[in-house]
Amino acid sequence: MKMENSDEEIQDNIEAKISKEKSLGLTNIKTSVINGIVIIEGSIISFWQRARIETITRAVKGVKGIVNKLKINPKSEIIRDLMSKDLSNERLRHIVDAHLSKIECFFGLIGVSFAIVFVIFAALVTPGYNPLEDTVSSLGRGIAKTLFSIAFVLSGSLTIPFILYLEKTLIGINEFVRRIATAIAVISSVCVALVGILPDHDNPDAFMRFHGTVTLSGFLGSIATICLYTFLMMKSNEYKLYHIIIGYATGFELILLAITLFNPLVEWILVVNIMLWILITSIRLILS
User: Fold this and answer.
1) What is the pTM of this model?
2) On the CB side of 227, how many CA atoms lie within 13 Å of its CA?
């Protein structure tokens, strides 16, 4: 029977893996291991670095837990690096990334919050609107179509930087799935933004074909993105069970939507679930 790695072996493996991550630019990170519990200390300049170090550490065999004592101190590190004669383009890119990372975390939260408020308000002010009988897209043809348009343009556009930040926190878990998820996410986010384009009354048939294409692409792409990222989140062990359930529920609801022949109420439930997943993921990243 193969013995578990000793604390010394675990520490050596972690430090070796961190040192190979040249993009992190880390030189002052210290680790210690006690009975499989890893204590990480040092100074970093971004939340992304913190998440990446934890991902690397958690992937090492024998690690039972992590005590993260890393201190985020961007100002002094940035000034020192920018004044360095050996500053590389790669390092400069990561300095910029570290400076903007907190803003990126808020993009998903802001976009989906505006979308929720505007869509609900559009439904309330549209005469005779009934979510039991009317689809979400029908709001784009009613009296509150401008609110509907703003909601989807904002949510689709702001989801892109949010997704790109989320991707960075999951590097190293399953590169193939991560890259596929990110590609689908960017395309579907663009389609969601295009859903907000107002109807063209001069070319109604062409508009309906366009609207139907981007709506279906954005809908299916968003669900695929959430399911794939939920798979990665489950592997990372950084997310709660309810987060995983909400993520995979979108796939189940899509099947239910097909079975019910696109019942408006089921569509509403699915749209709310997608927005809820983005909302709680954004909050999780902000608080991490």
Assistant:
1) 0.67
2) 15
